[in-house]
Every structure is written in structure tokens, then in C-alpha cells.
Amino acid sequence: MSRLNYHHLYYFWRIAVVGNLTQVAKDLHISQSALSAQLKQFEHNMNVELFERKGRRLNLTVHGNRVLAYADDIFSKGEELESFLRNGCINEKQHLSIGVLTTLSRNFIESFISPLLANPQVSFTLTAQGISHLLNGLANHEFDLVLTNQAVNSVQSDPLWQSQQVSRQPLAIIGPKEKMINQVFPHGYQNLRWVLPSKNTEIRAAFDELCATYQYQADVQAEADDMAMLRLLARDSGALAVLPAVVVKDEIEQGVLEVYQHLPDVYEYFYAITAQRKFVPQVLIDLLEQHIELAD
């Protein structure tokens, strides 16, 4: 059985993290051909394919992702050791890279990361992207965590993903406070304008089902799949909106908008998605445990 060559493992780790063989070769002051040869030798010795080569792109295989998880553990500990030997102490500050779905409520995101803001030993970055880019980022270990309102299994079935519900928010009919309707839908809602989520969303499907039940025809003035845009439309259009109250919590607190009524047994669900890996930052474990307990 071949011994693990940690020099080769380090090369693999740098390539997987940076995502560009040319850049890694430049950083390590070796030729690209030599680096490529070392990587191929590592794969040959371990009898495993770590990357799928598509043109100039290198995509991690399933085995590559698992090897990367171990490499993260090994070399992150090595960096801690180097810091200790150089400075006489270990840098205990932890960093999280969080990907968020572009259409996700900013108020929910702020609420989710609030424990991090209160912790001086933690730093983090937030990156908004579409779901496919977010999942690719997880696979390439660009993100420690992804926040979305889409269950991962509805997007891509892959045993690498771990999807956990971290919150649910009841959907509500929300509108201008001065036009408050005290009757139960659909009574009192005739001839009113609406701003609604797009038809490809679960929220819109739930509202359409409610309208069909009561044979109510909504006069839709505008549609949007971005919660930030729906927030602005609900605030400025004078029309009614269907969305979780957390999206417009500031406007409700300011007396601009009011919750007319909650839709019965209808919720928007929020998920935290992680990739299976051996080394998981403790701050991420604590953050997920806290929100999962609140969601139960």
C-alpha cells in the first residue's frame, strides 16, 4: 500500500481551494506542467480520480470532495501550529463564508447572522448568488454554509448535501395600515390591487390555491421573485402583498404596513445547506444548533 505523500496532498489542497492550476503554480513558484504532473502522480499513487477535467476547468469528483475535507482538517491545523510556533499563540478567531440566495429576505439573513455579530472572535463574508452557483461553491468549499428558501432536494439530489430547516415564517396578507381590513379573506377584499411573488414560487402557489378555494380573482399589479423588491412594492405601491411579515418588519414597526391576516397553515421555510465534510468549524456547529432549536 502506498504511503500518503503529504507534499502531493498539499498541492491538491491548494488547487482545490484556489480552483485555478495556473494561479497555484504561480503562488508556489513552480511550473504549471510540474504541478500538473505532481497531481497526476498523487492520483495514480492513491488509485483515485480527484478531478474531472473539462477543458481547462478542474471540477472535484465525489472522492475529491471527501479528500478535500480531510485536507482542510490537516492543513488548517498545520496553519494553527505555524501561528503558534511563530507568535507563541494560536489565532482563535474563526471565519465563515456564507452564501445566500439572491432572492432571500434580507431581514431573515440579518436575524440568522445576529449571533455572529455578537461574537468578537468570529468574522464572516456574505455572498449572494443563484442556487446553482451556491451549490457549486459548497462543492468547491468556497462556502461553509448556504442559506436558501429552497429545499436542496428540490434542486439537486446529491448525498454530499446536508439540508436543515432553520426557520419557518407564516405567510400573511399585508397592506397599508390606513386601509386595514378586519374581515376574513375574501370578504372585504373585492376590487383591490395586489403585488405578489412570481408564479414559480411556493408562496404564490399557496395564495393561488387559497384564491381558487374561494373563487377569488386577484387583480395583480406587479410580480417579483425577489423579497427585497416585494418589500419595496408593498411599502410604496399602496397595494396588498402576500409575504412573511419578517420581510417588512421595519415597516410594520414604523406603522407604515399592517398584517391584515395570516394565511392558515401556510409558511415559507428557510434552510441551511452544508456539504458533508470531516472538519466543520465549531462556530458553524453552534450557529446551526441554535437556529435548529428555535425552528423546532
What do you see in this structure?
The protein is α/β, with parallel strands linked by helices. The chain folds into 3 domains: 6-87, Arc Repressor Mutant, subunit A (Orthogonal Bundle), CATH 1.10.10.10; 94-168 and 270-295, D-Maltodextrin-Binding Protein, domain 2 (3-Layer(aba) Sandwich); 169-267, D-Maltodextrin-Binding Protein, domain 2 (3-Layer(aba) Sandwich), CATH 3.40.190. It contains 10 helices and 10 strands. It has an 8-stranded mixed beta sheet, with helices on both faces. Helix 1 (6-18) crosses helix 3, helix 1 (6-18) crosses helix 4 and helix 2 packs across helix 3. It is elongated, with a radius of gyration of 24 Å.
Can I get a quick summary?
The chain is α/β, with parallel strands linked by helices and 296 residues long. The protein has ten helices and ten strands. An eight-stranded mixed β-sheet has the order 4-3-5-10-6-9-7-8, with helices on both faces. A two-stranded antiparallel ribbon has the order 1-2.
Give Rg in angstroms: 24 Å
The rough form would be described as: elongated
Query: Helical proportion?
Result: 40-55%
Arithmetic mean of pLDDT: 85
Uncertain segments:
154-158
Beta-strand fraction estimate:
25-35%
Family: Belongs to the LysR transcriptional regulatory family.
Keywords: DNA-binding, Transcription, Transcription regulation
Pfam family, one: HTH_1
Domain HTH lysR-type: 4-61
